[in-house]
Specification:
Two copies of one chain form a homodimer.
Chain A lengths: L10 H24 L6 H8 L3 H7 L3 H22 L6 H21 L4 H12 L2 H26 L8 H22 L5 H19 L16
Helix pairs in contact in A: 1-2, 1-6, 4-5, 4-6, 4-7, 5-9, 7-8, 8-9
Chain A binds a DNA duplex through helix 1 and helix 3.
GO molecular function (chains A, B): DNA-binding transcription factor activity; transcription cis-regulatory region binding
Protein name (chains A, B): Transcriptional regulator
Organism (chains A, B): Streptomyces scopuliridis RB72
Chain lengths: 224, 224
Amino acid sequence: MTSGQNTTIGLRARKKRRTRDALLRVALELFTTQGYEQTTIDEITDAVEVSQRTFFRYFASKEEAAFAVVDMVENKFLDSLRARPAEETPFEAMRNAVESAWDSVSEALEAVVPVELYMRTYLLIESTPALVAVHLRRTAELEEEVAQLIADREGLDVNTDPRPRVAVASFTGVMRVTGKIWGRGRVASVEALQEMTRAYLDHLGPALAGDWRTPVCDKDRRPA
Amino acid sequence: MTSGQNTTIGLRARKKRRTRDALLRVALELFTTQGYEQTTIDEITDAVEVSQRTFFRYFASKEEAAFAVVDMVENKFLDSLRARPAEETPFEAMRNAVESAWDSVSEALEAVVPVELYMRTYLLIESTPALVAVHLRRTAELEEEVAQLIADREGLDVNTDPRPRVAVASFTGVMRVTGKIWGRGRVASVEALQEMTRAYLDHLGPALAGDWRTPVCDKDRRPA
DNA sequence: TTGTCAACTGTCAGTGGCTGACACTAACGT
DNA sequence: ACGTTAGTGTCAGCCACTGACAGTTGACAA
């Protein structure tokens, strides 16, 4: 009765969560202030007062720590996408998934890391060659997963029908460009990014909004 | 008079070339047979009988060795592209650059590394996560460079006119997909790759072949 | 030819990311 | 209250990579 909901989750698990969060916060803080490569694992673990070994029990690598929040956001997006009703077109589904992910993400995020730190981390990734490489690979993997999801929704096969991959590629392409421009700009706020994303996606809409339940390849094309 | 054309290039330079080539050949051979991560620098340098330090004097990193041949091919392509006459359309120029690069590359390549080893290396890169990441980043950088080149040819600005980047992206996209499919296929010969590339690029042609000297976006484009 | 200079290489010592093994402590279930 | 087990620290070590210094060997001029 000394604690609120602490009994639902054990003390052990709570401690774990605390050290992980601390490691993550300190890591991102150091990365974004002194640079990724300039920061050693020892600096991080010294600040949190745990052993280096503990760091690697939570994060498989230094990189993984840098991408931990990004990973979280991406998973929220995937969850949202899976939850979209089947009536929505692929584009609507992806777009709405982004919208609804924004909300659930920002609160789940804030519990671990201030949003502002997440923003700085994103900028760090885009400006650190080693991290750019990893980011591109991760994006490619995410695209593949999303394409598969979209294809399933529409009852298509990713390997025979090019439309899922193409749609996803252009969608994430827009997202990526948005992030880049936002990074270059002055206003690094969440709202600015949200608004910018909406505006850019609006341009993409019409091109992808058609109905997909009818074939389109080669000869069996209709005069849509 | 004991040597043919050895006097044109000093003994020193020749030795350098030899050790570099040896390091590269052994490195790629080991990478492709036992895997990239399973191969240590010591294994390579032991086989060539030089110190580990020497390896890092020739290659800034282990990765750089893995991409040395790819780098060479890309540079040949860029050279070919720069040499294309101004009359050619962007697409023609890129396509012809690829064609003419094939020849100059294969002979320059063979002097250092057997073509077959290059092929295996490419497959290795595509199947090693750490190298995939680097490859994607390198490709992005190459695309940027090519887009800049194309824009210059056409007297455009990459930042205001989206067409150069779009064209390059689709072009390299086709090239990339071709490489992937070729990698999955049975026939891993150069000819197969060449032919496949031609066939795929043929599909892309019409969409990009238009004249670019006339404006198409916004209003403030100049007619020259 | 010889001697000086510069380039190339090896050795050594050290840093930082990362891992396996083992022992210890503390939360957990009974 | 007590055995179990998850989480942690310590230690020893591998591997990629770097700086500093010294030795060797082509290059080039006197």
